Each structure stands twice: as C-alpha cells, then as structure tokens.
Amino acid sequence: MQNLVFTEEKYLKRCNFDIRIRKHIFLKALLIKYKAVVKFILTFLLVYIGFSLLYSWYLDVSDGSKYYPDYMTHLVSKQTDVVLNTLGYDVKMQPHPDEPSMKVIVNGTYLARIIEGCNSVSVIILFVSFIIAFSEKFKTTFLFLFAGSVLIYTVNLLRIVLLTVGLYHYPGHSDFLHSVVFPAIIYGMVFLLWVFWVKRFSKKKKTRE
Q1: Distance CA 58, CA 67 (A)
Q2: Distance between CA atoms of 180 and 185, rounded to whole angstroms?
Q3: What are the residues facing 104 on neighbouring strands?
Q4: What is the 3-state secondary structure (H, E, C) of the chain?
Q5: I want to staple 72 with a disulfide (CB 3.0 to 4.6 A). Which of 49, 119, 176, 201 is the partner?
Q6: What confidence score (pLDDT) does residue 164 get?
C-alpha cells in the first residue's frame, strides 16, 4: 500500500513537471512568434515613458520668469500672435493671472487660452515613440522624425490659428470646434504619418526578404 501511494505521488509530480515543461515550451514558442510585436511594445513604452519624464522635468524647472508659462508654450503663443496679426486681426497675448497659460484676446475679446497641452510637445513625443519603435537605419529614422515633428508643430500652430478665427466668427460652435474638429486635425496628422512609416517599413522588409 505504501509503495502504491509513493508511486501515485511520483506519478503526479511527473505529470506536474510535464505540464510545466509544456507551458514553458508554449510560452517560448509564443514569444518567438510574436517577438517583433513584443519588441515594438516594449520599445514604444520605454521611449514614451523616458521622453515623458524628461518633458515633465522640463516643466518642473520652467519657472515662467522669462518665458511664461514655459518656453514652448510661450513660443507657440507668440507665433500664433504673429500669424493672426498677419491675417489682419488685432491680437494680444497676455499671461493668465490665475493659471499657467496665455490669454488670447482678439479685437478686444478674450476668446481662448493657450495652455501647456497646446504646444504639441506631448503629441510629438507620442509620434517619436512610435517611429523609434519601428525604426530603420539611423539616418532615415532621424530625418523622418525631424520632418514629422516639424510638420506636427506647424499643423498644430495652424490649428490654433484656425481655432481662434473660428471661435471669433462662430462662438456658438466653440465646443464642437475645440473638442472635435481641431483635435481630429492634429491626431489625424499623426495617424497618417504613422501609416506612411509603417507601409514604408513593411515594403522595405519585404524587399529585403
């Protein structure tokens, strides 16, 4: 009887060992099969978190004494001012007294505020993280990152200009313009850049194969 119990315990241990081996083999095969996907996700997360932390540090050290509320937001505000004035609008950018933002005043009417989230840096970080996760040769990737970032920044600037003009002429549609139309413009641009890069990346990979 004792030998029988011992044999059953040995058999169960053997079965558990075989199950663990099978799980290990299955997970290893799964990892090999989806190696590219896992690499992309990990690279994307690491780059995104790294740049986000760096940007967060930049915001922490920006005291707003020279460029209010921070340099990038201040720069976007001033460039928006120049473009709108060129279009014939009397624009004034004033520091908001109650929060870190710039007040946009058109022809004496306070229309909007430009906050840190309007400077396109967070969107560029998202774009850059994706491209690096799908990176090719350094030169090709760098040039696309640079060109794409400049394009996103420019489109975002035009987005703010058009949004301001829209708020001035169509104040009754402010929520729709601010929450739907113009966010779709900037994120749509990022999506199109991603699609272009992935298609180009896929074609080159097929060519090499």
Answers
A1: 13
A2: 9
A3: 93, 112
A4: CHHHHHHHHHHHHHHHHHHHHHHHHHHHHHHHHCHHHHHHHHHHHHHHHHHHHHHHHHHHHCCCCCCCCCHHHHHHHHHHHHHHHHCCCCEEEEECCCCCCEEEEECCEEEEEECHHHCCHHHHHHHHHHHHHCCCCHHHHHHHHHHHHHHHHHHHHHHHHHHHHHHHHCHHHHHHHHHHHHHHHHHHHHHHHHHHHHHHHHHHHHHHC
A5: 119
A6: 92
CB 177 within 8 A of CB 163: yes
Q: Specify the pLDDT at position 204.
A: 59
Q: What is the largest CA-CA distance in the chain?
A: 100
Q: Which among 194, 190, 131, 129 has a CA at the least distance from the CA of 159?
A: 190
Tell me how far CA of residue 69 lies from CA of 66, 78, 96, 102, 124, in angstroms.
Answer: 9, 12, 9, 8, 19
| Cis peptide, bond prior to residue 69, ω within 30 of zero | yes
Q: Which residue has the higher pLDDT, 188 or 205?
A: 188
The closest of 86, 109, 119, 94 to 169, measured between CA atoms, is: 109
How far is 73 from 92, CA to CA, in rounded Å? Answer: 15
State the Cα angle at 41 between 39 and 44, rounded to 5°.
100
pLDDT at 209 over 90: no
Q: Residue range 148-169: average pLDDT?
A: 93
Q: Which residues pair with 103 in a beta bridge?
A: 94, 113
How far apart are the C-alpha atoms of 173 and 163, rounded to whole Å?
11
- Look up tokens 């989806």; give the residue: 34
